[in-house]
# Entry
Amino acid sequence: MKPLILKGCGTALFTPFRDGKVDEAAMAATVRRQVEAGIHFLVPLGTTGETPCLSVAERQRVLEITRENAPGKTLLVGGGTNSLTATLESMAQLPDADAYLIVVPYYNKPNQTGLYEYYKAVAGSTDKPIVIYNVPGRTGDNITAETTLRLAEEIPNIVAIKEASGNYKQISEIIRCKPEGFSVLSGNDDETLSLMATGADGVVSVASNVAPKEMVALVEALQQDDMVKARAYHHLLSPLFKALFIEPNPIPGKAAMARLGLMQNELRLPLVPASARTEELINKTLDELWK
# Structure
């Protein structure tokens, strides 16, 4: 297996819809915009992409469009579910992934032994890289630093973690003790500066859907230890970070993309479009970002 080291800014892509169907033209244009902005890698079919609401055929087409419009870019593809059987089926349905983003299995709330065995089994089913995705706010469970580090040390193709726990002490411990070649990626835009300043390798970003050039600039400043520039971009983007999560992701983000003329403000139930108050905030935030 060729080593894959994930670094930089990766965009957790929205899935555009029009009249109830995947808007393929908007999807292609969105991906091209990311490439033109210099994004480092792309993350289709995550939670941000409303993947639980997509059919198998739609997921396959989204990945195909992403690949066609981002030649040469690493594609970290969402493949996780809440059971081993379903996760392995999902991965098998998406063979063109460069790596799989596997969320902590939600609803079941396994203990740490269960999480270790689950990720070991997932990684053992493929020779492709596996990235752990820890987001307790959505899954109801947390993978600890100890379990993460054990997986990183013992399972060769577990190559990174997307950490969205918001637990700085836990993430810092992973950064401090991780083996060489294992990446730690922030799962929260507003923690990019603090985590990369202490050794994280990048971010899987929602904000970079809206402001890809600015997010790339923030991350590259951090990679170059240019803290003056990094702080400036962090403060510029902070209102956007906040606005994009005032309602559940991707509701505010799709309102922002619609305001920019990049896709329809259309979601699939159980998600609904942003409230008027959120749209007002999004519009104000975008006006101030590029004034």
Notes: The domain at 8-227 is CATH 3.20.20.70 (TIM Barrel). The longest strand covers residues 158-163.
